[in-house]
Every structure is written in structure tokens, then in C-alpha cells.
Amino acid sequence: MRHEAPQGRRVNAVGAIAPYDPAGQRLVYETRRKAEGRDDAAAHLAFVRRLAGEPASRRGRPCVVVLDNYSVHHSQAVTEDTPALAASDVHFCFLPPYSPELNPIEPVWRQVKYQDLPERSHPTDTALQTAVNAALANRAKRLQQATTNFPRPA
Hints:
By secondary structure, the protein is an alpha+beta fold. Helix content is about 40%, strand content about 15%. It has a domain at about 10-115: Nucleotidyltransferase, domain 5 (2-Layer Sandwich), CATH 3.30.420. The protein has helices spanning about 40-50, 55-60, 75-85, 105-115, 125-145, and strands at about 10-20, 25-35, 65, 90-95. The longest helix is centred in the last third of the chain and has 23 residues, at about 125-145. The N and C termini lie far apart (about 60 Å).
């Protein structure tokens, strides 16, 4: 039987939880294969802008993005763009180093990885990305349904 090495079959995922969305807890995510470009500062800033929604006047309230200490979050490009984001009422809050227990999305990643992706091997990076997107969409739907009737802060 022919063996295909899995090199290059990596999918990066970035995500955020909007816990106080009026329609229920919302998981926003994006996946990227190596062929689609690096998960760098430019990709991070583009995700934050899509997450926050522009302009701030349509949002109606500040957007606070909680970040761990991934090197991209502290890159020069992100640091230089922070004042412009703050002017749009988008603010960063950094978690202390080595504190994944404080990051509410960590359990979601664990559930997606170990429960929602039962098949761990895929023939192509595109097939892997399709499986990851399906697992994330399923988890997002379950999170939203589970929290629809929770009381929301005023």
C-alpha cells in the first residue's frame, strides 16, 4: 500500500468568541492553508478588523479583543496599528504568559480537535481544511444554540 507523507497538510485556525452577542454566544473563525499565505501580522489585523466590524459607529460599543502571547500579537505591525484600532474603539487586552486557563476559546479548540474531528488523516490539505471548517461550523452552531436563552448584560 502506498504511503503519502502528511508534510504540508497543515491548517491554521484563528478564532474568537463573542460571548455577549444578543443572538447567543458566537464563534467567529477563519482557516488558512499554507498555500493561502502565512498566518502573520497582516492576516491577524485583517481578522481583527472583520471581527470588530467597521465603522465603530455601527457597532455601538467598544470591541475588546483578548489575546494570548502568540508572537504575531506582539509584532511590530500590530503594535504600530494599535493606535488606529483604538481610534475605532477596538482595544487589545493581553493575557498573562502561560495562562491558557484564562482564555475562553481554549476549551473550544480542544473540543473541535478531539471531539468534532474524529478522522485525523486527510489525503490533501484542502480536504483537511474542509473537515476543519465543518467541525468549526458545527461547534459554532452548538455554542450559539446552547446559549441563546441565557440572560444578557444590559
